[in-house]
Write a structure and sequence with these properties.
The complex is a heterodimer of chains A (594) and B (189). Chain A is α+β, with helices and mostly antiparallel strands and 594 residues long. Chain A has 14 helices and 23 strands. The two termini of chain B are 25 Å apart. The chains are: A alpha+beta (594), B mainly alpha (189). Strand 3 of chain A pairs parallel with strand 1 of chain B, so a sheet runs across the interface.
Chain lengths: 594, 189
């Protein structure tokens, strides 16, 4: 092997996990190389370029602003719709329409509906900004409820790192409002910035939901901790602007009031000890057969003109942080396709997402959506409870964008009124205002259980332009998951009744690939963009890929980072926990390099 | 226009009614723009006011830095074809002889209910409201300024997704009033 360079640590992936590791190691004077498959944020396309692309895009999906490089391709939400169901019911096969291509080779029975970006800064370019902590009980659902699997660490182990992560990201929330379901904070601690003010939608739901009790919990509305700037506490100042409510958190914040990892990457690079190479696709993780240590990462550096060069770099430690599909894909394809870090046969398995069920209704009064961050509050009371012994829990995200997700508001309202109802002029304006201003959409993020057969593996027939097998995805729901949908549907109906709202939730287009039936009712789900579980951490090397320090059981100098290491997905959006776990792993890596 | 993660329902299926254009929207080359003939443009703006419910001050302000009226005139000409647009403007030219208060009713009966002119007129509404040209095959955003100045956002008393000129926390307060109605009294509420 041609070992051209030696670093203290080689990091693959410049999303939040890679950025945090690089920053922490760089601050300790360790020499770090980051390999990133996509374009740079320093000399690549600017934020303005991305925003412009979003404005001009006909389909304003999460990927709309971002590039799709030939050599670093990724899945797109629009392609998921190209799968056609064959047969009926839950266990149908999916096939691609002739003439279309998709990056994810989906084998069903249901389509995996979440996507990710490949560029410096990672998928958090298009994250919503939600920074919920996991609940203490989320770490031990097997013990408490007989479902899922226990984490090898507890809330207590992670709590100080949650605090650190909240300052690194810059989270706006009030600790006293977040102390529910057993969540606690280091004494004297509060978030760096005050909670984001609740929208008029939040305010309406909060004052009208009072008195509704479900599963023994009195429902209430809680401001959502958010990685977006509000008013600072004490002397906190991260140098960025306060949120101006652009209502495009997904797919892009035009003013970077919302955190993204380019901020941490820039800090890492400023240490003077970190180097980042972009347009560099890692293709092979090389292992010494005797020591079982990783001895190098081979990568392809491609140019926009299509030219490619292969290189290998070496380090004392390696951290793979290419997210929960690309990291297992790289490892499974390494060692001539025989795989690395997979003696457990768990690599790529237990793929999870938060399947999102929308519940939407017409409110009795105007709340004026499409103003403010996409979501500012949630109903968090049902994230935990005794019901977890027989069905998935969920959190309920209150959206500030009317029926944008379930019914493509306001465009679909407009289209209907203009083309079907024949409205124009003043009557069109009055009717459109009256209809859209009263729309409410609740997003139920359902806690999907880990299942071995939900997995990413290597496609046997399809390859990308570098000849690397595409990710082959097997995905579906358990009864436990689908009973979560049943509860979500019924909960939506009860909430809407309580609010005096007219329930418009309906799932009846059986031709959609994301449609399924369960217990006599149809459902649809969307991906939350929360890709979790494909390289789980655990106490047992036979049942997990990494230990509780995120170190590979098989290779002592290999660390795997990101939401892939979560044993369960719980009900919290994963980013804050990714950051906290990475900060914890950084301590281990620093100790090892010292 | 399809937004966010929602695409499966598609916005295209309901576009069928009375459209004359079946092909994909013709690619827009905005650099070809030159000033539209003055009288044609005046007709185009007045017709657009009736169709959209917005006043001339909104669609074609005196100090018009955007000049969307001129852009949209050429977009419509390119997408509909000169003959159809001229037909539409000629029909409105006859209506414009009437007192202004009678324009909406006449536009409804003589243009929107006309087989040949109703579809193009509705496409003009969509153009002003979204900044995109809609037909049965889909839609095409004219320009980023067209998107951020779509009337739909003013109508719902919001702002374009991705383009806020408001201050931190505005979403907790009552919205700003919408622009004046064309024919109505007071503001759209």
């Amino acid at each position: 092997m041609n070992q051209e360079e030696q670093y203290d640590a080689v990091v693959v992936g410049a999303g939040i996990a890679g950025a945090i590791i690089a920053k922490r190691l760089g601050e300790e004077g360790k020499r770090v190389l980051i390999l990133e498959s996509g374009p740079d944020f320093r000399q690549g396309p600017s934020r303005e370029t991305y925003v412009e692309a979003f404005y001009k895009a006909s389909a304003k999906v999460p990927e709309a602003p971002y590039p799709d490089d030939l050599y670093a391709p990724h899945a797109e939400v629009l392609q998921i719709g190209n799968y056609e169901p064959v047969g009926n019911g839950q266990h149908r096969k999916l096939k691609l329409k002739p003439g279309t291509t998709s990056y994810l080779d989906q084998k069903g029975p249901l389509p995996f509906s979440s996507t990710y970006e490949r560029l410096a800064g990672g998928t958090m370019w298009h994250w919503l900004g939600t920074c919920l902590r996991m609940l203490p009980n989320d770490f031990k659902t097997k013990t408490l409820y007989g479902h899922g699997v226990d984490w090898p660490i507890s809330y207590n182990d992670l709590e100080p790192y949650y605090c650190e992560a909240e300052y690194l990201i810059g989270v706006s929330a009030n600790a006293n409002e977040q102390s529910y379901h057993g969540v606690y904070f280091t004494p004297g601690y509060d978030y760096p910035m005050e909670a984001i003010p609740p929208s008029q939608t939040d305010q309406f739901v909060a004052s009208n939901i009072q008195g509704l009790t479900l599963d023994g919990e009195a429902l209430s509305v809680t401001p959502t901790p958010a990685g977006r700037n509000s008013r600072a506490r004490n002397d906190y100042d991260n140098g960025r602007r306060a949120c101006a409510g652009n209502t495009s958190c997904v797919p892009i914040c035009p003013i970077q009031a919302k955190y993204d990892p380019t901020i941490t990457l820039a800090q890492a690079l400023q240490t003077g000890h970190v180097e980042m190479r972009t347009n560099c696709v890692a293709v092979d993780v090389k292992v010494d057969a005797d020591t079982q240590k990783v001895i190098g990462v081979e990568y392809v550096h491609y140019q926009n003109d299509g030219s490619k060069q292969r290189h290998t770099v070496s380090g004392k430690l390696y951290a793979l942080a290419a997210h929960a599909i690309e990291t297992p894909r790289l490892l499974l394809n390494s060692n001539n396709g025989k795989g690395v870090a997979n003696s457990s046969d768990q690599l790529g398995r237990n793929l999870m997402d938060h399947p999102v069920m929308n519940g939407w209704a017409m409110l009795p009064e105007k709340v004026y959506p499409f103003r403010g961050p996409v979501s500012t509050s949630g109903i968090e009371n049902l994230r935990d409870g005794g019901f977890r012994s027989h069905r998935s829990a969920f959190r309920i995200e209150i959206h500030n964008v009317g029926w944008n997700w379930p019914e493509n508001a306001p465009f679909q309202d407009l289209t209907n009124m203009v083309f079907s109802e024949g409205l124009f002029g003043d009557s069109l304006r009055k009717q459109l205002n009256n209809q859209v201003a009263r729309q409410l959409d609740l997003n139920f993020l359902i806690d999907q259980q880990p299942q071995e057969h939900n997995r990413i593996t290597l496609s046997k027939h399809k390859q990308d332009a570098l000849g690397i097998p595409l990710p082959e995805i097997h995905y579906g729901f358990s009864d436990y998951d689908m009973n979560g949908f049943v509860a979500a549907f019924e909960t939506a109906d009860k909430i809407f009744s309580q609010l005096g709202a007219r329930n418009h939730t309906h799932f009846d287009d059986t031709s959609k690939p994301n449609y399924f039936e369960y217990k006599g009712r149809g459902y649809e789900f969307q991906g939350a963009g929360h890709i979790v579980g494909t390289m789980r951490m655990g106490d047992n090397p036979k049942q997990s890929v990494v230990d509780k320090e995120l170190r590979s059981w098989d290779h002592p100098n290999l660390f795997l980072l990101g939401s892939g290491v979560f044993p369960t997905i719980a009900t919290s959006n994963p980013t804050l926990t990714i950051a906290a776990l990475t900060l914890r792993a950084a301590d281990t890596m620093i100790k090892e390099l010292t | 226009m399809v937004s966010r993660r929602h695409f499966l329902a598609g916005s295209v299926a309901l576009l069928g009614a009375n459209l004359t254009q079946a092909a994909h929207p013709v690619p827009l080359k905005l650099k070809e723009h030159h000033p539209a003939p003055t009288e044609q443009l005046a007709l185009f703006v007045d017709l657009s006011c009736v169709l959209t419910g917005y006043t001339r001050e909104t669609l074609a302000p005196k100090f018009d830095t955007l000049d969307l009226k001129n852009q949209y005139y050429w977009v419509a000409r390119k997408q509909l074809g000169g003959e159809t647009l001229d037909g539409l403007l000629n029909a409105f030219g006859r209506i414009r002889q009437l007192p202004e208060a009678r324009w909406p009713q006449a536009v409804e009966s003589q243009i929107l209910r006309s087989y040949g002119l109703g579809g193009p007129a509705r496409q003009l509404i969509m153009l002003w409201y979204t900044g995109a040209w809609y037909n049965e095959q889909g839609d095409m955003v004219v320009s980023s300024k067209a998107y951020t100045n779509g009337l739909v956002w003013d109508t719902i008393q919001a702002h374009p997704m991705g383009y806020s000129e408001f201050h931190f926390g505005y979403w907790a307060e009552d919205p700003v009033p919408a622009a004046p109605l064309f024919a109505g009294e007071g503001e759209a509420k």
